[in-house]
Specification:
124 residues; mainly beta; four-stranded antiparallel β-sheet; 11 strands; 48% strand
Length: 124
């Protein structure tokens, strides 16, 4: 069992930056692939970024590539999402998820554990 808790959301102006954190419980955090997803009002949940168990492999949605960076610190059981040059359309609830398979995945159905989400609002 893994429990994940997101933090770091808030209000930011367009062009600004935020860093989200996802703290995970459990000794086996280092075995899990981790991902970030988001859901804007009236829209379906969408993939944002993912990282494999070691942190050596990452993948991003085209909409955030070059602006967002996912990373992890297995010693701290934490995964991060650094968001730069933010746009109004980045406004959403951001969710962290853990996949027992260890690999990164873009499909939400591949993830076993989800956090409650953190609100990110970008003002134009």
């Amino acid at each position: 069992q893994v429990r994940v808790v997101e933090s770091g959301g808030g209000l930011v102006q367009a062009g600004g930056s935020l860093r989200l954190s996802c703290a995970a419980s459990g000794r086996t955090f280092g075995n899990y692939g981790m991902g970030w997803f988001r859901q804007a009002p009236g829209k379906e949940r969408e993939f944002v970024a993912a990282i494999n168990w070691s942190g050596r492999s990452t993948t991003y949605a085209d909409s955030v590539k070059g602006r967002f960076t996912i990373s992890r610190d297995n010693a701290k059981n934490t995964v991060y999402l650094q968001m730069n040059t933010m746009k109004f359309e980045d406004t959403a609830v951001y969710y962290c998820a853990a996949s027992a398979g260890g690999y990164y995945n873009t499909e939400g159905t591949r993830y076993d554990y989800w956090g409650q989400g953190t609100q990110v609002t970008v003002s134009s």
